[in-house]
Amino acid sequence: MTSRQFLIRDLLVLFGLTGWALALPGFASEFAVSMALTCLMYIALSSSWALFCGTTRYLSLATSAFFGIGAYTSAILLESMAWVQVIGLGALVAAAVAVVMGAAVLHLRGTYFAVLTFGMTELIRHAISYFEKSVTGTVGRVLMVVPDRDTIYLTVLALAVLTVALSITIRRTRFGLAMLGIGADEQRAQTLGVNTRWVKVAGFALTAAVAGAVGAAMSVRWTYIDPHTVFNPFIGFQTVLIALIGGAATLWGPLIAAIVFSVLAETLRLQVPQIYMMSLGLLLILSVLYLPGGLASLRTESLRGWRDGAKAWWIETRDDLSGETKRRKQREKSLRERRDVF
Amino acid sequence: MTSSAQPLLDARDITVRFGGLTAVDAVSARFMPGELVGIIGPNGAGKTTFFNAISGVTQPTSGALTVQGRELAGQGPHRFAANGLARTFQTPRTFADMRVRDNIAFGLKFAGRRPRQYIWWGEETTVPWVLRTPESILGLIGLSAQAELPAAAITPSQQRLLEIGMALATRPRMLLLDEVAAGLTENEVEEMALLIRRLRDELDLTVVWIEHAVTTLLRHVERVIVLHQGRKIADGTPAEVVRNPEVIEAYLGDEMNESSDEETEA
């Protein structure tokens, strides 16, 4: 397929999925819609995470910070502003924080970057907890006027679609190419004319804007928010896990993994919560070991490769257990000895 | 063309320190348009560090750097690239996952998008035709047949050519080559040297070429700078440098005398 055909395919798939998600509240149960909402939230979060972190390989753990900032912006402004403005401001504030954070830590790579983004997330969480306790005198905020369920669903759906559409388009722009170059070899990209500093900060701010908007939209679903729920590091970790398991460098990987995850989450978490966490860990280990490109890189060839590998392993184990390996070695040894005699 | 009185790159008293170690010690060098200059020196002489400093990859501890009349010391490598300075790396740093063609297209998309600068430079009003497209650049360096392969799949000597191609894609006025002939066979080294000369002539480039294989280098360049322990100890034509007692004393020693003898015999 040419690059144009790929574009058309991707847009058609997105279009089809959007239509399906739009129709969902019409026929599905309350439970299914709430599950779809969580799923859409993680599609937006992990697709936007992968858009920057997957291509540049800067592993950010700050998603929950931007999510929480969006949620708090929404909680403060909801009563005085229109819904769309609230979402927009949530994105804007999160992006502004990301610009400051990015300017401070984006010159670090690898573990240092990951650890510092996580540290800053905790810093923001504790700062807001302290501020709420000592200045406003509350531990949490109750949201009085909340939009109805369908508005929230449509907003998060729009954000998810927007994020995937952004991923599709940015991949084909100079900006996307620059991020790819940074991921491959940052210094080389610089010597070829990429202003890496600017690209990194802009990409980081873009991810943050999506997370902020999603946070702003999702906060109203809970009607009561406090720093522990909206700055929950688990939101950030799960975003990263979904992107990694799905394939951080791929377009559809985060979306596929987000669907798998929310199905897993809703079916397992209610009945056996420990098994949910264990299966998350297991999935991550399996995907890192056997599918480094993520779920989206799964092809029939890889399945065939696993099958052949498993078959070879089974034959070997069977021979070991039945003593066949030992006998074969014995045969080879005696053959050698006989040859040596002659 | 730029007036010949103004150097394309003027480095004055470039010093690079890493902690207590002075890797480059107050080295000054001027590179005029169209020159082909070699830099030699034993291991640890500071050749690559000097290169890094004049291409923005390493920030010099002190010193001034002027590229085409613009003061660029302390700025990022992308500013150097945007001002017509391209470089290669000692170990080829191609984008392994991308196709060969896309590796070339990368540079064209960023620093290469500067047709206006060619207007300011006067004579040329457009980009040289051989640097127009990825295909034409691949033709120039002789990798047309490999265009669709991933960069990881081509041979090490082709990697070196691709590395040069990527640098050319930024449409430079000056090309810094860091040991592009290392690890190549004798024939390949000769071909590489001819390619470099051809690039210089056809594209009117200034070429600065670091090489460990001194003999090859001396045969092809017009001027040699010798670095030793971070200092510049000689700067002149190959014939002058070969006779410079300080160079013989400090670095080249017997090995150099032998190879220069060979050359005079030949």
Describe it:
The complex is a heterodimer of chains A (342) and B (266). Chain A is built from 14 helices and 2 strands; from the N terminus they run H-H-H-H-H-E-H-H-H-E-H-H-H-H-H-H. The mean pLDDT of chain A is 89. Chain A has 342 residues and is mainly alpha-helical. The longest helix of chain A is centred in the N-terminal third of the chain and has 27 residues. In chain A, helix 6 runs antiparallel to helix 8. A 6-stranded mixed sheet of chain B has the order 6-7-8-3-9-10, sandwiched between helices. Chain B has a 4-stranded antiparallel sheet with strand order 2-1-4-5, with helices on one face. Chain B has a domain of 181 residues: Rossmann fold (3-Layer(aba) Sandwich). In chain B, helix 5 packs across helix 6. Chain B is globular, with a radius of gyration of 18 Å. Helix content of chain B is 39%, strand content 22%. Chain B is built from 10 helices and 10 strands.
What are the defining features of this structure?
heterodimer, A: 342 residues, ABC transporter involved in vitamin B12 uptake, BtuC, 2 domains, 82% helix, globular, B: 266 residues, six-stranded mixed beta sheet, 10 helices
Strand tally of chain B is 10
**What class, by secondary structure content of chain B?**
alpha/beta
Order of helices and strands of chain A: HHHHHEHHHEHHHHHH
- State the name of the first-level CATH class of the largest domain in chain A: Mainly Alpha
Shape of chain B: globular
Rg of chain B (CA only): 18 Å
The main sheet of chain B orders its strands as 6-7-8-3-9-10
Under CATH, the topology of the largest domain in chain A can be stated as ABC transporter involved in vitamin B12 uptake, BtuC
Indicate the low-confidence ranges of chain A by residue numbers.
none
| Helix/strand structural class of chain A | mainly alpha
Write down how many β-strands of chain A occur, each being a DSSP E stretch of 2 or more residues: 2
Most extensive contact:
A-B, 18 and 27 residues
> How many individual helices of chain A?
14
